[in-house]
Design brief:
Length: 310
């Protein structure tokens, strides 16, 4: 997290309305957006998506109604997760429009601050049964074949050049269907294509999914976009997993089960790593890991076992 040294400068850039990502690319001398760039940019933008929802509510309602119909057409959806949930403006609206609401609803984002807003936004909608946590799109702290429906809404978008890694990780945790609502390079006009490349957006999702051998059951324009120069494409991938795994949080480094302790942290007995919980939001980026090999050690028993007399 080398660029964290520049946060005060970045705050000034954001307040002037300038592009944070472009500044971060410049000081990092990188052409593609890094995970750190995306984290910093989105964290500073926290709150702006709730504002946008309030100004463009009709579009968001129609967007989520259309998505809800797709999800409702899938049989026996007991769990769903939004990747890059942000401030939950899509997830909260989607839940409202679903006819068959899953018993387990999850969402994660790389930015803790965005999830702070998400919690409150969901409260405004009377929704309290969503499990939110921070995570990296490329290191999702969930077991493979554990979520019935995995979907994105312009969350893979800024990760141009890493389409294969992103798709493989999303496909890994999917049990039944992976629904991607992402910039549609294939269906975009020349101006939109140039804009996508300029901002480091994904441009090869469909090509990559085909090369990975995934079963693509639908690929088309979604028909609803906030920006005509960033048209939303729909790609639905079906997965028939041979076996399913229990849906629970795991260590993003070791993929071993995490157990909650005292509502303040999650601990993996097998990896010896602990992760903090801040304001009820588990922080599960690998950078949040705390090595605690003796977290479960009882000091008094330790003294007895080792014949220590003080």
């Amino acid at each position: 997290m080398e660029k964290f040294k520049h946060l005060q400068k970045i705050k000034e850039i954001y307040e002037r309305g300038e592009n944070i990502i472009q500044y971060l690319n410049r000081i990092g001398n990188n052409n593609l957006n890094t995970v750190e760039d995306i984290l910093i940019s989105y964290d500073f933008q926290s709150g702006s998506y709730v504002q946008s929802f309030a100004k463009n509510r009709e579009l968001k309602e129609n967007y989520c109604k259309t998505l809800a119909k797709l999800v409702d057409n899938i049989e026996n959806v007991e769990s769903i997760i939004e990747i890059g949930v942000g401030e939950a403006t899509t997830l909260g609206t989607l839940i409202k429009h679903l006819q068959n609401k899953p018993s387990e609803i999850l969402g994660f984002d790389i930015s803790w601050s965005r999830l702070k807003f998400a919690k409150e936004f969901l409260k405004d909608f009377g929704i309290s049964n969503v499990n939110l946590f921070t995570a990296n799109l490329f290191e999702i702290p969930l077991p493979e074949n554990s979520v019935d429906v995995v979907y994105t809404s312009h969350s893979i978008e800024p990760n141009g050049g890493t389409e294969s890694e992103a798709l493989q990780e999303l496909y890994r945790i999917t049990k039944k269907f992976l629904i991607l609502l992402e910039p549609s390079y294939e269906f975009a006009n020349d101006e939109a294509k140039e804009r996508m490349k300029k901002h480091g957006y994904v441009t090869k999702l469909y090509e990559t999914a085909k090369n990975l051998g995934y079963k693509i059951v639908e690929h088309r324009l979604f028909g609803l976009s906030a920006n005509p120069l960033n048209p939303t494409g729909l790609m639905i991938i079906e997965k028939n997993a041979a076996s399913f795994n229990k849906l629970n949080l795991v260590c993003p480094i070791s993929q071993t089960e995490l157990v909650k302790h005292n509502d303040s942290l999650l601990y993996s007995e097998k990896s010896f790593l602990a992760y903090p919980i801040i304001d009820s939001i588990p922080c599960l980026l690998k950078e949040n890991a705390i090595l605690a090999t003796h977290f479960l050690t009882d000091y008094q028993k330790y003294k007895v076992t080792n014949h220590i007399a003080l």
